[in-house]
Batch of 2 targets.
Target 1
Amino acid sequence: MPQPKPTTNIGPSSPVPNSSGPSSPPTPLPTGSGPGFPRSRRSLGLPGWNTGKRLIQPLILLGPAGLWLVVLLLLPTLLLLELSLIPGFRLGQPPGAYGLGNYVTLLDPLYLTVMGRSLTYALGTTALCLVLGFPVAYWIAILAPQRWRSLLLLGFILPLWTSSLLRAYAWITILRPSGVLNSILAGLHLPGQAWLNNTPAIFIGMTYSFLPYMVLILYASLEKLDRRMLEAAADLGAQPHQTFWKVTLPQSLPGIAAGSLLVFISALGDFVVPDLLGGSSSMTLSRLVYQQFLGATRNWGLGSSLSLLLIGAVGLAIALLLKWGNRDSDGSLL
Amino acid sequence: MEQRPGAVLTAAPPTAPSPDIELRDILKTFAGEPAVQGLNLQVQPGEFFSLLGPSGCGKTTTLRLIAGFETPTAGSLHIRGQEMAQVPPYRRPVNTVFQSYALFRHLSVWENVAFGLKLQRLGKGELRSRVTAALTQVKMDPFAQRFPAQLSGGQQQRVALARALVNRPAVLLLDEPLGALDLKLRKEMQLELANLHRSLGLTFVMVTHDQEEALSLSDRIAVMNQGRIEQVGSPSQIYENPQTAFVADFIGDTNLLRGQVEQSDSATVKLVTETGLPIWTERRSEWNGTLPQQLMVSIRPERILVSAPGQMAGIARSPNCHAGRLKQVMYLGPNIQCQVQLPTGEELTVLQPNGREQLPVIDAEVEVSWQVQDSHALVA
């Protein structure tokens, strides 16, 4: 009976070459301990090489981004944590003893007001973006003709191509006392309003800045909506508004949550709009952080504790979404 | 001519007071292209009616017109005697089982089935008893709290059925209801659909491209092609008495041959194909006046007999008897399929029951024969 000659074996599991005749019974693959042909050292060494490969491959893939995150995110955050634990730390002065003084300062009613205001701005902007963005996303994704969709979407996210600073300055020319908006009001014989350096300017500016993100995410969610499900609802007797509340909205909840979270995080941390459009009366957490690090006070310790407060708030928002998102019947998040 | 699209009532129960669904001269165009045209159709109460045809023939458009997802470009559509062409789907007394079920993924099985009843603002007690009854009917009551993603295809199918039936529609519309199931499950669900139809006495309108499914389930079938109805009739009428070459070809296998009318008497007509093959066929009553010059004949493979030369087994006195050569023999289990080439060049497909005889040998000289009434004449 001809013995298979696995001299051309490439790997441990490669089939036996067809040297055995059609009449010969199936021959088991030769193994390293089997008689005849000894498995090469190379194949015995393979498992070890594999483990090495199993470690090297992800390292190569994750290395650059991981290094980036460690050097530019993790280490600075740890540094912030340390600074926040040194009350009254200022650059150029010898650091004092560790303590929770900075965090106690945060409980001052003055800072609590600022936190409340930041939260209000962020939540208000999120709500405005959702209310304004949903109809737009719905229209582009469901009602607009297919071939126009990409163009419409592009048109809507076009403002993102200019710098946020530029957009804020554009709003200044519109909202200032002698600006475009008040000129129009004057033309209509209506009294002019103090838009700029006021709360309305912040809501207008931030909503304008973050609306495209909301529309983009809601569009992605609505575009996936199964149209036959809408037909099924109509078939079962649901009028269009009932279909919307009972099918369309529940189906797009993950998108709504994701879009709201993104806008909320961005708005909570936004500095440009509150600083340029908000005026002195609308101090926010991000402006306070700026003041502590680069402004007049230079209290890096307090600035660090404020920064960590912001990070904590964002982390909490994400944690809530994760918990809430898991309730989705699909079991899929976002 | 009997059985042409205009005369669809021939196979309907004669006592039927008024049809559940009536389409008259329906035209539907998409971007100027007609999807269905000249559609005339009546579905009688309690009927299991199928729309059968190849993809793109307009059968799904027809169903969507009845459901209300499309509005006809022209023509009238009545459901239970009421004009419904412009009525939105949510005001029509019909419910649909969708092709891939279209269950609400964010709702449990129970909530899916209760969807329609909740919209009707039914009392809690009645809602619960009707949903339970519908789920029990399709044997899905143990799965009431599951979500669609946790169900198999067959189970989702049952939920979709319950979701439609619980509303007690006048007509149940089924869009390729079994298309997504594997063969074994499909056979099982076919039986259940037939049982459901019998026990409910409800009018079913089903779209399918599966001729076997249509033949086995339907009371009547409308065969559609290129936006038009080719023929409406009972399964046996459609199979035994196809009115057009398309129907003969689409339903089952057949041998289609075209020929010139050469001679005829009161009972038979003799055609000769282009290659010179003579075929005798029955003279149809509708040709009493003028006989068409050209005719087509459809000969079903199972009606042709293959025998050894000179034996003429069974069909002794048929003029349709020709010598031939076996080109191919295929063993199909219950049947044996042969390709026989005639001296004139035509190749006939023949289906023989597997009767434990010896398998014919390829290249053997044989004789093929069939009865005069089995060469079914069609207008070419």
Target 2
Amino acid sequence: MEEQAIAKSVLETGEMVLNMGPQHPSTHGVLRLKIHTDGEIVSKIEPVIGYLHRCFEKHCEYLSYEQIVPFTDRCDYLASMHMDHAFSIAVEKLLDVELPERVEYIRVIIAELQRIASHLVALGTFGLDVGAITPFTWAIRDRERILDLFEALCGARLLYNYIWPGGVSHDLPPKFVERTLDFLDYFDPQIDEFNNLLSTNKIFIERTGDVGVLPPDVGINFGVTGPSLRGSGVNWDLRKNEPYSIYDKFDFDVPLGEGTMGTIGDTWDRYYVRVLEMRESAKIIRQACAQLPDGDVHEAIPKKIRPAVGEVYGRYESARGDVGFYIISNGKNIPLRVKMRSPAFCNLSVLSEIAEGWMISDVIAILGSLDIVLGEIDR
Amino acid sequence: MTSIVDSLVKSFSSFNLDIAVLLPVITLIGGTVIFLIMAVNALIAVYFERKISAFMQDRLGPMEVGIFGFKGGKKFWGGIGQTLADAIKLLVKEDILPNNADKFLMILAPFIIFTGAFLTFIGLPFAQNIVISDFNIGIFYIFAMSSIGVIGVILAGWSSNNKWSLYGSMRAAAQIISYEIPIGLSLLLVVLVAGSLHLGDIVQWQADHRWFIFHSPFTFLAFFIFYISTIAETNRTPFDIPEAESELVAGWMTEYSGFRWALFFLSEYANMLIVSIVASIVFLGGWLSPLQIFNIFPDSWLILDGPAIGLFWVLFKAVILIFIMMWFRWTFPRLRVDQLMYLCWKVFIPFALANLFLVSLWELIF
């Protein structure tokens, strides 16, 4: 009996706690993961967040509605337009303003361009996570052209402050539509090239197919939204299910994970849904550019935003999922409370559920496929 | 085949020097030559890799740093001094040793890795008579020396007292030791056919018959097993899991900086050159001209096959193989540890073993 105990104490292999982050190349910012490992196998993951907390919600209680918009930019810095748009939609709901058609079309064009830009970063960095470096530079190269368009639009390349409650800050610059269409003509073949380079690469499929499967019910229970949930085959896209703005006017599909390279909801599906979504976004932009009406974009911007007492919840399908702004107004020009639902936060919460039991390399891949932005998680 | 050491001994013999003086002098000359080869190789290969990766990624790569004042914004000089500048930067960098590291081992490790690469060059022929010392067991010696490096890798990972380094070194140890088996088996196959461990004899055999890669289907397969395994042995993508920068920060090199890190770098590129030269000598005819195979060129062209041009052909073939390695690195993702081991133990080793058996039969029959 004693011998057994001694043998056990000698032979027992302990778990090692590995501190991944906050300074680590693949945690997409300042996420810290406490990883309990047994050799290469990961038995437990504890995400530690808060390294990028900037008190966004508290700030909102001291700022007027117009002043909050630049702060929303800084939440999801890879899809700032989506944040502006989401917040503006919530405020407009509160104010109950009617927007000019042109504003809605511009917003849709910009939002879909932003979706492409954001997905390009997601796909490129996902390539980096599994060790392919070239896809990243290719993706960044194409994103650069979108940023050039945005620069022409509002002068900024990352944090735009472009979509305001009631309108947009500037009308489209001359030739913007032509340049956008030029970009789309250039971009479509690039997606095929990207697929050749990464998506259908045998090693890439080995690394991502069947890895980190997110079952639909688990995804829904954890509040996963956006491409990460659609990768599991759940048809949930606010642009279709709860159309805001003028998305009901456009003809587009919602790509879903089909388990082409393994099980439905694996890492490859989550990745590939984003590739397909870029095509759908391009489709929407083409339609919107063709139908773009004339008008004054500043027409509906209120001089002073002073909503009536009340509360509102605005939902928005951002590049990462379901963004929500819950605003309580007490009739002043400053909101009483703003609560933001962060999609990346909910998406991250499922990490320990689906990544435990896989290897360290897989955890990196799964984390990359969830496409988190720490600015939005920590706010 | 005469070696550099032999000719040095011959030319010094007229001075009637004592052997105790002669040996250190010759060793020093040989060592300097090897060090220069390694340094120049790293300088050129890094520039080469940067430019290749840049063109593959739609970038320009280093464009600014000229050399000896030749900057002038001319495209030809684009960034040609960049690696030199980087080397100087690495040499003057602060040398960091973590507090809790095992300092002796941590200082020792890069030198072991460097020594492994350095010693390999002694037996490595660059052309018919350009070899530091001509061994009759050359292939065995090169194979043995190139596996010394793994000791340094394990020491580096362990002594850094960093979990990432430990992971990297454990992965590296498993990987390098595993992949030596298919490399050894495919080299054994060539030795079996040629009947010699001497690299000169192996090339001579190829001159008499044909290049090994074209000799039989089995040697053809052996070349690919050898080449892919050497990519794993040199820790390059898609097998760069020991230093996987997106997973393990920098693997076993995480805690190293400055000169020690430069030694790792030097050895890595030296190893690339070594395995490429070995592959080109053993499978691709070494210093034999490829023009000879087709036999359609007039005899006057065969001057390209002379011993003088042998160095060119060896390096030409080696550079092509190095280019393919770089091509892999900039296009492929990385394998996972278990997939890497699967590839080695369940694909390469069985195939290499069967290959060895079948090539024996083939030689018996034909």
